[in-house]
Amino acid sequence: MDTSVDTKTDKLGRRTGPRRRYLVAEKLSILEETRRPGASIADVARAHGINHNVVFGWRRLAQRGLLRAESAGSSALVPVRVESPTVVPTAKLPSSRTEAAGSIEVEFPGGVRVRVHGCVDANALERVFKSLARR
Question: Which residues, 6+ apart, have CB-to-CB distance to 106 below 8 Å?
């Protein structure tokens, strides 16, 4: 991720070009500076060349638990094992969605394992995986 600052400015000295993207660790470091005795969010933001409203937004995210140190790293991957069906498919089409051949098994950290056999509604399966990933 690019964290560089574009040095191009307009006639009024305002930065132009793409926005700077801050890493979660940088955001948390700046928020920590605002917690020092006598520190002003506006002063800390100005020292880093950031609008104070951006820092207030980061603070709200941190208060809601959406800005955490463990989210600073890359996204964690979960192991997935793809298996071929145990039944050899025939030319006969399934008479219902539940008869379709196939299986998916996903193991989440903490030992939670989900097995899906046959044809499943993709939206329902996505909601299950998202709720398990939040645990």
Answer: 78, 80, 113, 114, 129
